[in-house]
Each structure stands twice: as structure tokens, then as C-alpha cells.
Design goal:
By secondary structure, this protein is an alpha/beta fold. The chain has one domain: Isochorismatase-like (Rossmann fold, 3-Layer(aba) Sandwich), CATH 3.40.50.850. Helices cover about 30% and strands about 20% of the residues. Helix 3 runs parallel beside helix 4.
Length: about 190
């Protein structure tokens, strides 16, 4: 199967109840979840591959703690029967998981990545995916960021982190477009 004809998968990364805990309240782009829901509905209507990545953190202090009350995938984007759920324990969805093998088995060479947060798990997954030879699309409005504080105490607000990370990833690692542009291109 040629790359031009290979299916394009939608990967939803770390969209779990944990992102609604108070420590994540300063995130930008509050409409990101609705955008992911729209992408998900579009993908399902086309019968295209959808994969869900679930973060199971081993540290009990983490919002994403594997055995904690906030670990579930958000019901708004919950997987349907037949949609793979790949569990990860690192920030990168390719490390220690079956993501690459699953995509290879599905003959997927291109994927759209939506989820949280752009400067952590999304960034790590995009960079690893690019190194593995995937063509990646990042819908800019289907993700979010939180403020970052450096070791020296300097801080950056969520919007600045979001814009800078998308600019860096869009320069070399992924095609950055809005979800609307993406749907228009694929419709």
C-alpha cells in the first residue's frame, strides 16, 4: 500500500479526567475538548482508525496515577469497541508501548495527534513519531498547555508555552493546522 493511500489515524493522547484537577486549571485553550470531540466524530463517520493513549502514572502523587480516581479516559472521548487503548507510563506514547507495532499492523504512516499537554507528552510523542518516519498532523486547537516554571524560577504563561511549542513542532516535526482546516482537507 502506498503512503498516499495508507489510512490516517487519529490518536487521542492523555485525555483523562486528571486534566480537570485543580492543579491544571491554568491551562489555555479551554475549548480543546470540544475540538477533539469534533475530530473524533469525523474520524468515526469515515471509519478511519482511532487510537486512545492512556497515561498510567506509577507515582501516587500524580494526577494520572494508575490507581487514582482521576485516571479514566474522559467520557466525552471514550473509546468505542474495537478502538485500541494503549497504556503508557512515560511521557512519550512510543516508549514501552505497542503504539508503533499497532500502527504498523494497521499500515498507518500518517496520524493526527490530539490531546494534552502540547509541551510534554504531545511534544515527546511527535518527536519520536517523526524519528520513526511517521507523517504527523497537529491540530493546533485540539490541544492545550499549562504554565511552565523553570529551575531558575522564571515562568511562562500557558498561552506562550502553547504558541512556542506549536511553532517549534510545526517548523520541523509536524504539520500544524486548525481542526477545521484539517477536516476541510480530508473531507
Amino acid at each position: 500500500m502506498s503512503q498516499a493511500l495508507s489510512p490516517i489515524a487519529l490518536i487521542i493522547l492523555d485525555v483523562q479526567d486528571a486534566i480537570d484537577r485543580p492543579n491544571w486549571n491554568a491551562k489555555n485553550n479551554p475549548g480543546y475538548l470540544g475540538v477533539i470531540q469534533r475530530l473524533l466524530a469525523f474520524w468515526r463517520s469515515k471509519g478511519w482508525p482511532v487510537l486512545h493513549i492512556k497515561h498510567d502514572e506509577q507515582a501516587p502523587s500524580s494526577s494520572y496515577y494508575a490507581h487514582g480516581p482521576w485516571n479514566a479516559i474522559k467520557r466525552e472521548v471514550a473509546p468505542l469497541a474495537g478502538e485500541p487503548v494503549i497504556v503508557k507510563q512515560q511521557n512519550c506514547a512510543f516508549i514501552g508501548t505497542q503504539l508503533h507495532a499497532t500502527l504498523t499492523q494497521m499500515r498507518v504512516k500518517r496520524f493526527v495527534l490530539a490531546g494534552v499537554v502540547i509541551h510534554n507528552s504531545m511534544d515527546a510523542t511527535v518527536r519520536a513519531g517523526k524519528a520513526l518516519g511517521y507523517n504527523i498532523v497537529l491540530p493546533s486547537d485540539a490541544t492545550t498547555a499549562v504554565p511552565v516554571v523553570g529551575a531558575d524560577g522564571k515562568s511562562w504563561d500557558a498561552q506562550t508555552v502553547y504558541e512556542l511549542t506549536l511553532a517549534i513542532l510545526g517548523d520541523e516535526y509536524a504539520d500544524v493546522v486548525s481542526a477545521e482546516e484539517l477536516i476541510d482537507q480530508l473531507a
